[in-house]
Structures are given as C-alpha cells and as structure tokens.
TrEMBL record:
It comes from the Eukaryota. It catalyses: L-tyrosyl-[protein] + ATP = O-phospho-L-tyrosyl-[protein] + ADP + H(+); L-seryl-[protein] + ATP = O-phospho-L-seryl-[protein] + ADP + H(+); L-threonyl-[protein] + ATP = O-phospho-L-threonyl-[protein] + ADP + H(+). It comes from Ditylum brightwellii. This is mitogen-activated protein kinase kinase. InterPro entries: Kinase-like_dom_sf (IPR011009), Prot_kinase_dom (IPR000719), Ser-Thr/Tyr_kinase_cat_dom (IPR001245), Ser/Thr_kinase_AS (IPR008271). Its EC number is 2.7.12.2. The keyword rRNA processing does not apply. Keywords: ATP-binding, Kinase, Nucleotide-binding, Transferase. Residues 41-334 form the Protein kinase domain. PROSITE patterns: PROTEIN_KINASE_DOM, PROTEIN_KINASE_ST. One of its GO terms (molecular function) is MAP kinase kinase activity. The keyword ATP-binding applies.
Length: 348
C-alpha cells in the first residue's frame, strides 16, 4: 500500500482542498474541469522533462468531449494541449511538487501565466496529469538555442518568433524582441508578487512562447506563497545559474530575487549568452558574482540607455535596490519600443 492520499475506492486523489478523479478536478469545492480524461486525448511526442514530471503534447481525440477552462486568447476549446504527468506512487517529493503547482495554477489568473485547463488521475499507474495550455513555440531557452529551421509554423502572427529565429546564432535579439519578452515577463512577475508569490525558478526554460507573440511564465512547482507579514524565505531551491546573490549565500530573500533572475534572462536575450556560462559550481558562481558587477556584464556601448537601466535595476547586488516589477513595467523604454500594453508587446 502506498500513501497516495486516495479515497477508499482508490480512484480519486485528494490532498489539501484538491480532489482529482479519472475525469474531473475540484479545488476548494469548485469544479475546475469535468469530462476530461485520458480517453479524450491522443498523446503525441514528449516535449519536456523535469525532475518530477514529464510533459507531452496531446490533441483532442475524435469524439473527445471536454468541459474545462479555455485559455485566454482562444475562441474555442484548444485542439492541442500540454500534458504534465506526475508519477506520484512512492514519491513524496513529486506529490509535494504537484500540490504546489496545482494550488498555484488554481489560485492564479493572469494573461502572462500559463493556463491550467484541467487535470485527471490514473489510478492504475498512480499518475496525476495536469492539462495545460499548449505554447506552440516551446520555451525561450529552446528557441534561443535551437536551429533556425526548427519549429516552423503556418501562423500569420510570427512577429516575435521571427525576431528570435532570424537572430539565432548572432549576438542577441533586437531590442524590440527583448522589450516584448521583458514587458510580458514583468507583467507576470508583477502579478505573482502582488499575490504574495515568489516564482523562485525564473529562467529561459520556464518562459514559454507561442505564435501569437505571447510570452508566459510556467512551472510553479517550487513557487512560494508568502504569508501576510512574512518578508523573506530562506530555502534554497531553483536553478543555480539564475539565483540571486542572497539565495546563493543561503540568506533570507523575497520577491526581488525573481528580479535578479529576470535581469539575467534579459541579458541572455540581448547578448546571446549568459555571463556565467563557464561557471561550473555554486561556489564559483557566488565568487564570480561577488567579485564582479553588472557594469562588467552589460555591453553598455551596444544597448540603448533604457535597456541598460532595466538590466542594472534588476542586477543590483543588494535586493533592496532592485526596482519592483510593478514599477519597472512603467519604464519609458517600453514606450520608446512602441509597447504600452500586452497587445503591443505581442505585436512587436
């Protein structure tokens, strides 16, 4: 017998306000999806792997009858979805990651966060599957490192993607493309921080893109909810290269740690590489961060003053000096790039 948090019948996964059956999901008494099961979907190729889950592409099967959330921007049920599968049998860590991600996805609603469509439980395999909005151009990380000939699309809305793909292998993206990514990431982070959430793993691999030019944050398995009055977290989780100095030192940290990570992602976008590509350990990374500064990483001679200001605002050694996302998104630089709304950002 395994501690799966199952009901006596063994066909429902229950934990902390969540109830997931073979074809439904409820959260705190509210039905989030129904008539959504494995039989409604045709599972296609694997599109991602993490420490606790596997992500596969899927489409509605012929005759599939789904009642679930429709992602913003879609006018009807999506034909393709992303299935994030958590094998939870005998694995406490996976169950904890699943619960954190599900609670975050059920509680948050923002245009710049990936939408949860529904979930179902396979009691035979002991697997909970999250059905997520499918971002058809994958992650920013894969785009920045992919071959220009891959991930082709017939969509007519390819402005941001065209900017990215036409500059692969060069020294970074055009500023308009970087501005589009920055604006949408700031919108998502600003929302999370307003809701007292810290993402804790902002990196190119957790920034997803679609052919409409939309950019969305994903992967909330290690996101942290701050209680009212709680200013700092102390746990060390996330991808080391993008960690803030205070997190590398295992010191208390807050939402400003996400801004440091954002700064590194944007620096990678506009220069084509990370300033820490050759670093091989957390100790070496901390020493590099402490002994250098953003002035040495940012090519001020090739970037506009507005972009330099954004990068320097994020990459401050002292977390107190980093400007919050809700303020940075009002930078005049975005206006200079023709971006005053999310629609503008997607249409660069």
């Amino acid at each position: 017998r395994y501690d799966l948090g199952l009901s006596p019948m063994g066909t429902t996964y229950r934990a902390e306000g969540l109830s997931i059956g073979r074809d439904y999901m409820r959260f705190e008494g509210m039905t989030m999806s129904s008539q959504l099961s494995r039989s409604d979907l045709e599972v296609e190729e694997t599109i991602g792997r993490g420490a606790c889950s596997i992500v596969k592409k899927a489409k509605l099967a012929v005759g599939g009858n789904v009642k679930a959330n429709i992602p913003k921007g879609e006018t009807s049920r999506p034909t393709h979805m992303a299935l994030k599968m958590f094998p939870i049998r005998r694995d406490k860590k996976r169950r904890e990651m699943l619960l954190k991600e599900l609670r975050s996805l059920c509680s948050l609603e923002c245009d710049c966060l990936v939408t949860l469509i529904g979930a179902f439980f396979d009691d035979d395999e002991g697997t909970v599957t999250l059905v997520l909005e499918y971002m058809d151009r994958g992650s920013l990380g894969s785009l920045l490192g992919s071959d220009p000939g891959t991930n082709s699309s017939t969509s007519n809305h390819l402005s941001l993607i065209s900017h990215v793909e036409s500059n692969l292998g060069r020294n970074g993206l055009p500023e308009k493309a970087t501005a589009s990514i920055a604006y949408q990431m700031l919108w998502g982070l600003g929302y999370l921080h307003h809701e007292n959430m810290i993402h804790r793993d902002v990196k190119p691999g957790n920034v997803l893109v679609n052919t409409r030019g939309e950019v969305k944050l994903s992967d909330f398995g290690i996101a942290s909810q701050r209680e009212v009055g709680q200013e700092m977290n102390v746990t060390v989780v996330g991808t080391t290269r993008y960690m803030s100095p205070e997190r590398l030192r295992a010191k208390p940290y807050g939402s400003s740690s996400d801004l440091w990570s954002l700064g590194l992602v944007l620096l990678e976008c506009c220069t084509g590489k990370s300033p820490f590509e050759d670093v091989t350990s957390q100790v070496e990374l901390l020493l590099t961060v402490e002994e250098t500064s953003a002035d040495e990483w940012i090519p001020v001679d090739t970037l506009s003053p507005g972009l330099v200001e954004i990068l320097k605002s994020c990459l401050q050694q002292s977390p107190e000096r980093r400007i919050p996302a809700s303020i940075l998104i009002g930078s005049p630089w975005f206006g200079d790039m023709g971006i005053e709304s999310l629609d503008d950002a997607a249409d660069v």
